[in-house]
Amino acid sequence: MISVIIPLYNKEKTIKQTVFSVLNQTYKNFEIVIINDGSTDNSENMIREINDERIKIFNINNSGVSCARNFGIDNSIGEYIFFLDADDLVYQECLLTLIHKFEEYPDSEIIFSNYFFVESNGRKVLGSKIENYVGYIDNPLKMMFQEKISLRTGVMLFKRSIFDNNKFNTKISVHEDTDLWVRLLNNTKIAYSPAILHEYQKLHSILSEIKIDIKKEFAYHIKLNRCKSIYQILIYCNNINGSIIRRIFMKDYKTTFILINKHFIYLPILILTYFITKSFK
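The structure assignment produced for this chain is given below.
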């Protein structure tokens, strides 16, 4: 069984469409575990209008997306875990394609696929650039840094056992997925399917539009001296650079200074990483 875990906070306009994209899957052996993270809109009622015994709803006090996902893991029963955001869509063959890849690549603990990044003008861009490749990924952190592969919720299927010793950091609610993916990829076998199984709607992303508490961002909590590989360092530096640039763009200079000051000792490698990244774009 696959446990589809959906954290929910004020998504009354999209949650039904997201849930139906799961209910319409060709693969039927799943449960949908929805964690209502203290929504203040009509989100919960929208779900309760759907009559399907595979849907389980849990209500918790607003604690952030990391707490909600961890709660979902602890309160699900599937052998496999699939995370989905409450405003995303998965294509009909998504779960079936991913579960079949575990049969082809049994040593894997994570299977992931390709997806469309849907821009605000409706233009669709592929998330991962290795369209014609299929199979094990030998150095996923290197390929992640080079932007050849893109990992996100909605395209990744996990064996439950991977979460025995790894969970989302509950202090983080922005790029919390990057934090966990990188930690997992240091010690995990992963395989890829080029099938396009998901849509990520930029329309629903708010990271570039609002000011977020810096202490909830992964960039604030990064400790480069604890990295286990050069590519982990480079990915983390990219994340810090991205946060700094976004906050400068938003004229949030106070928080920009806090972030630069926190990582000041690593400023040369942050600058070097910026130019390395620009070189292959």
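Interim note for the steering committee: Residues 230-249 form the longest helix (20 residues). The chain has two domains: 2-204, 214-279.
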